[in-house]
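Please decode residue identities from the backbone states below.
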């Protein structure tokens, strides 16, 4: 895809609470830039996001807070400010905020995120990430 020239302004910079159990602010997500999107994600203390995967690749850049990331049902590791997490398309994932403050990270998706790319894989039988630590 080629980038179209011009100014883009999002409709809103207001965070949106999602079924994923986090707040997402879409910073850049337009068909004018179909090869990439950028969002800021906020997870409240003690919250574990929904187990899911995307049909697009993601990169998280953590800017604040402390968390635990789970990838592919088994790889669990600590994340904090300055950490970058690479998440291939279709990789099961979730994160828990283990700190006392908000966990905030930028999420870059390629190609750009669209709602149909999100696949909820959480079931009643899913082991909460907190029990894995």
């Amino acid at each position: 895809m080629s980038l179209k020239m011009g100014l883009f302004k999002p409709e809103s910079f207001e965070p949106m609470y999602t079924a994923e159990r986090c707040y997402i602010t879409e910073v850049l997500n337009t068909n004018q830039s179909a090869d990439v999107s950028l969002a800021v994600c906020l997870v409240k203390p003690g919250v574990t996001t929904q187990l899911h995967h995307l049909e697009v690749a993601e990169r998280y850049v953590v800017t604040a807070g402390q968390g635990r990331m789970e990838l592919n049902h088994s790889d669990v590791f600590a994340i904090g400010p300055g950490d970058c997490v690479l998440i291939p398309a279709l990789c099961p994932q979730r994160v828990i905020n283990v700190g006392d403050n908000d966990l905030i990270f930028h999420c870059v998706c390629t190609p750009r995120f669209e709602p149909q790319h999100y696949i909820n894989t959480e079931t009643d039988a899913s082991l909460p990430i907190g029990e894995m630590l």
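Observation: The chain has one helix and eleven strands.
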